[in-house]
Amino acid sequence: MPYRAAFRCIAGCPGEISIWQPIYQCPRCGGLLQVVHDVDALRARGAADWKRCFDERYAHAAKPNGSGVWSKKEWVCPELRDENLVTMNEGATSLLRVERYGRAIGVEDVWVKQCGLSHTGSFKDLGMTVLVSVVKQMIGDGARVRAVACASTGDTSASLAAYAAAAGIPAVVILPRGRVTPAQLVQPLANGARVLALDTDFDGCMTIVRRLAQEDGVYLANSMNSLRIEGQKTLSIEIVQQFGWEVPDLVVIPGGNLGNVSALGAGFDLMLDLGLIVKRPRIVVAQAAAANPLYRAYRNQWRFEPVAARTTIASAIQIGNPVSVEKAIRTLQRYDGIVEQATERELADAAARADRAGLFTCPHTGVALAALEKLAARGDVGKTARVVVISTANGLKFADFKVAYHTGRLPDVDARHANAPVELPNDYDAVRRAIDGVTEGHA
Ligand SMILES: *Cc1c(COP(=O)(O)O)cnc(C)c1O
Asked: Which atom of ligand 1 is the closest one to the Cα of 259?
């Protein structure tokens, strides 16, 4: 059975557009596009069959099944020829139960989906593998693409640079100068991308890259390109699969440009359409209070207005005018959605609290955890609910934030869980005195 996928306008304009065209918006109304699959063809194989097939493939080393994305290729990009697969075995990340943290916040069944364990250290790999593979096939079929380019708050550029390097395609990344961490900046440099640090914020970088795509033959790699969403949607499929095809009650995800939440919904939608699941989880988007346009819309009957994003430690979601806001709102309306926000202090303390239970969370995961703590405190999530928190990036990319927190140098944050190093002379008694009391709080 041949499976196929095409672009279609999210606002419902008629007609389909080939995914092998460099196009990011509906030519009629300018709205975003989404990828639609031939669901009838996919349905010809029963739900039980799909589950068995995906379980057999899961995390096998052989290409392409080492990838959490390409082991579900029929649901993602069925017409990609194997020779054009650009994969770094992304996804297939751990889903980890965090018992001590759950107990501390009064929710027993909390799990963290560790997307930061993926190849470049964030969930962005899930979408980038699809986008770069499609570009490779387009070029192989004769399309002229000068370079693949993105605006980025850090993680997108790291991911684009790695996949473009693996494919041998030139990459251009445009970053707001001084607003990404050194670890994030060095990733695209190391992978040989042309890195442009602009004197503007993320939203300013986005405006420039969209113009490059329109006028200068550059292929756009931001998440308004819905090929990215196709890869990212395997996130929800993978979570359900890891629970033995059971749906959690609540999923919490930190949102910036808001492609990720629509991707999460798209994965659940397809599983529902094909009968692999029958229940919907509730979806919670968590935003930094400093960059909270979706939170404001939620509190205002979904009437959206862009904001000027203020500086936040959660730099990857410092976005005031999210490109995928319409898709995100549609998703939240289908999934009984909630939007919550976290201040700098709340996100830093929540990240530190989770670290005390053995994690090493990035600040964006801190935003998600802080949102969960607020929901738990006001009873919006039950004590026994099964909750999955999407950890979007690896904490090691944000070590400066941890150092500042634990040494009391984060502005506006009076760090509740700070744990500064104790400096001592080379003296046994001083050491012995310093470990007095170390068992406190560890009963
Ligand atoms: C990109 C990113 C997000 C937000 O994802 P969107 O799709 O832009 O909403 C959250 N956390 C991290 C670490 C990211 O890199």
From this structure: 7
Distance of CA 11 to the CA centre of its chain: 24
Distance CA 396, CA 200 (A): 26
Within 106-181, residue ranges assigned H as helices are 124-140, 155-167
Q: Decide: helix, strand or coil at residue 394.
A: strand
Q: Where are the beta strands (DSSP E) in 234-353?
A: 250-254, 282-288, 338-342
Q: Cβ contacts of residue 273 below 8 Å, gap of 6+?
A: 39, 43
pLDDT tens across 238-269, in order? 999 999 999 999 999 999 999 999 999 999 99
State residue 443's pLDDT score: 42
Which residue do the tokens 């063809």 mark?
41
Q: What is the dihedral of CA 415, 421, 422, 426, to 10 degrees?
A: -170
Instruction: Give the single-character DSSP code of 100.
Output: H
Give the number of the atom of ligand 1 that is nearest the alpha carbon of residue 365.
Answer: 11
Domain ranges for the chain? 95-121+229-406
DSSP 393: B
Q: Rounded to a whole number, what is the distance in angstroms from the first to the last CA of the chain?
A: 59
Separation of 1 CA from ligand 1 center, angstroms?
Answer: 36
**In ligand 1, which atom is closest to the CA atom of 116?**
13
Which of 256, 260, 257, 279 lies closest to 269, judged by CA? Answer: 279
Instruction: Name the one residue in this structure whose structure tokens are 């995390």.
Output: 59
Give every residue of the chain whose pLDDT is below 70, as ranges: 1, 440-443
Beta bridge partners of 175: 197
Q: H or E segment at 242?
A: helix 234-242
**Does 340 contact ligand 1 (Cβ within 6 A)?**
no
95-121+229-406: CATH topology: Rossmann fold (3.40.50)
Pairing of strands 109-114, 95-97: antiparallel
Q: Quick count: other Cβ atoms within 10 Å of Cβ 272?
A: 15
CA distance 216 to 218: 6
